[in-house]
Design goal:
This protein has about 250 residues and is of the alpha+beta class. The chain is built from four helices and 18 strands. Helix content is about 15%, strand content about 45%. A hairpin with a 3-residue loop joins strand 17 and strand 18. It is elongated, with a radius of gyration of 19 Å. About 35% of the residues are buried. The mean pLDDT is about 95.
Length: about 250
């Protein structure tokens, strides 16, 4: 049977970090293979968060597709295999005989076979309109999450035309990270009005694993509304997450 897909990537860390970030939310999923690259859109098992990933064909030194196909894989198993790759290894992905073949080539070569799973495409990107979008340094996001975890299991993200704030409260304790417009860590802030939404910290922590990929993160917000978080490596990876808000009872 002819090969339907073959991809070679020299930047093994890019592939490893991308799939590892996805694996924090998904146990399995379907990668759609097209001439543009690999795409994955899927909800987590609790239907709280969605992963929207594109590994662009331009990230690979070789990318061949003879037939568009969906590759259903156990993402945890895929991640564990990729972790075995060394930083200097070239990784080859190949689809043949209903099997994903993974090869590492460096000082020596290693090969793994992963059977495909019979999975359906699980999700489509929701049509959401966000009144606010913010771009900030990924390290600041990680700091805000770590601060909030000392206090509670949820964090409120708040923005107005002049400020972006991460705030959490609990048991008479409070933590706040605030960036004013003009701060070098706040790359852009586009907000006409004040918005505020609260999100579960365990999900934000998992999503922030993608901070290893990009220096900056884009966050889109509304009032008691889902958020979208995007990490982009130009011409290589677009990794986005959509997270449902936690609606606090009065």
């Amino acid at each position: 049977m002819a090969k339907k897909f073959k991809a070679v990537i020299q930047d093994s860390e890019l592939l490893k970090d991308s799939i590892n970030a996805v694996s924090s939310l998904l146990n399995e999923g379907v990668f759609k293979v097209t001439k543009n690259g690999l795409e994955l859109v899927s909800m987590d098992s609790a239907n709280v968060a969605m992963v929207d990933m594109k590994l662009l064909s331009s990230a690979f030194t070789e990318f061949e597709v003879t037939e568009e196909v969906g590759i259903g894989v156990n993402i945890i198993e895929f991640t564990n295999i990729l972790k075995r790759a060394k930083a200097t290894d070239t990784i080859t992905l190949e689809l043949e005989d209903n099997m994903l073949h993974i090869r590492f080539a460096g000082g020596f070569s290693r090969a793994f076979n992963v059977p495909l799973l019979d999975l359906k495409h699980e999700a489509k990107n929701p049509k959401l309109e966000f009144p606010v979008d913010i771009q900030l340094k990924s390290t600041i996001l990680e700091d805000g999450i770590s601060d909030a975890e000392l206090i509670s299991d949820a964090v409120t993200l708040e923005a107005d035309p002049d400020n972006f704030t991460m705030r959490t409260e609990g048991d008479s304790r409070r933590a706040e990270l605030k960036l004013e417009k003009g701060n070098e860590s706040l790359v852009t802030l586009n907000a006409k009005d004040h918005v505020k939404s609260t999100f579960p910290l365990d999900y934000l922590r998992k999503m922030s694993k993608a901070a290893k990929l990009a220096d900056d993160v884009t966050i889109k917000l509304g009032n008691d509304y889902p958020m979208r978080m995007d990490f982009t490596v130009v011409d290589k990876v677009q990794l986005g997450f959509v997270l449902a808000p936690r609606i606090e009872s009065e």
